C-alpha cells in the first residue's frame, strides 16, 4: 500500500497560555470576563477555518492560470498559536482576517480539540498525525501562560536553540524535524539565510495524511486522453476511470463530486465547471457557503468518473497575501505580541508555505508545510442513465474531514502533466 501523507510545518512564535476559568471565561488580553454567548465552539472554529480557506484561495488564484495547492489547516493552525500571543489591534486584525473566535482560553482549547479530533482517526488504509514543536532562542524568556498553552492545547514540544550563534545548524535541526514528521516529502522548509541573529522563536507544525480511495480506480482502465487548459492549449494526460455511486450536487455553472477515502472519515470534493474555461469565473464567486449548499443538496448518483492522475508541488511566501487580507500590523515593527513575551519586541517576518500532492488510482499522497518566522521588531445501481463527470478541463478540489467538514487541503488543477 502506497503511503500518502499530508505534511505541514509551520514556524513562528506565538501563543499565550491562560488559566482556564470557571464561569465566566476570562478574556486573556484584558482580564475582563467574556459573555458566555460569544464563547467559541468547535463548529464555529471549523466554519472560520473554511471561510479563511476560501478567502486565501481567492487571493492565491486571482487572475492565475497556474496550478495551486496549499493547506489552510496548516496555515491557520500556525497562526492560531501566534494569535495566542497577540494583543490589541494586532490581535483584532488577526481575528478578523483569519476568522478566529475571541482571544480567550476556550478558543485555544477548542482549536486544539479540533486538531486532536482530526488526528485521532486511524485505520488499515488511513492514517493522519499532527505534530507541533516550538524552537526558542536559548535564554529568551516567554510568558509562562504562553508556553503552557502551546503544550496543553496544541500538544507542542518546546526546544531551545541557538539562532544567534548557530543559525544554519538550527535550520538543519528544524528542517530535519519537518522532513521526519512528513515522511520525507517536505525538505528544506526553511531556506538558507532565513534564520539570523534576531530570530527568537519558530513554531513548526507537521501533518501526516495517508489515505487510499474507498473505491480504487482500476489501473487497466486508465488511458491517455485530452485535457483542455485555460490558455486553450490541449495536453494529453493519464485519465482514470470508474463507475460508482457518489454524492453529487449541481448548479447551472458547475458540478460537485465527492469521492470518499477508505474509512469514510475524509473525502475529496471536485468542483468542475460546466464550461471548459469556466474556472476563472467560478473562482470569483465561490465561497464556503457553496460547499454548505452542496452538503444540503447532494444526492447519491450513479456516476461515470473521468479523473486525471496528477502531481504538483507549490511554494508561497504569504506575507503579502495575509497583509493584504487585513492583518498588516503583525508583519510590522508596530506588531503587538505582548501576550507572548510581555513586551512589543516581536513581529512576524515571513510566512512560507510549501505543498505537494500526488493523486493516482489507489490513493492521494500529499504534504504541506508552513513556516511562520518571528523576529525582533527592533533589531445501489440507479435505474436512470449514469451521470458523466469528465474532469478534462481545469477544476478546483478540496480534501476535508467528513464529520466536521474541516478543510485540510485545497487547490486548483489547470494543467496536468502532459504525456
Helix and strand layout, with pairings?
Layout: H1 42-61, E1 68-70, H2 72-84, H3 88-98, H4 105-119, E2 122-123, E3 126-137, H5 144-154, E4 156-161, H6 167-181, E5 199-212, E6 223-228, E7 234-250, E8 254-260, E9 266-273, H7 279-285, H8 288-297, E10 299-308, E11 310-317, H9 319-325, H10 338-341, E12 346-359, E13 363-376, E14 387-390, E15 395-401, E16 407-413
Parallel strand pairs: 3-4, 10-14
Antiparallel strand pairs: 1-16, 2-3, 3-5, 5-13, 6-7, 7-8, 7-10, 8-9, 9-15, 11-12, 12-13, 15-16
Helix pairs in contact: 2-3, 4-5
Alpha-beta classification: alpha+beta
* Rg calc: 22 Å
Order of helices and strands: HEHHHEEHEHEEEEEHHEEHHEEEEE
Tally of strands: 16
Largest sheet descriptor: 9 strands, mixed
Task: Report the oligomer.
Answer: single chain
Number of domains: 2
- CATH fold label of the largest domain: Antithrombin, Chain I, domain 2
Given as residue ranges, the uncertain stretches (5+ residues, pLDDT < 50) are: 1-26, 29-33
Shape: elongated
Using the coordinates above, name the CATH class of the largest domain: Alpha Beta
CATH superfamily of the largest domain: Antithrombin, subunit I, domain 2
Could you tell me how far the N terminus lies from the C terminus, measured between alpha carbons in angstroms?
25 Å
- How confident is the prediction overall: mean pLDDT? 86
Helix content: 25-40%
Q: How many helices in DSSP terms? A: 10
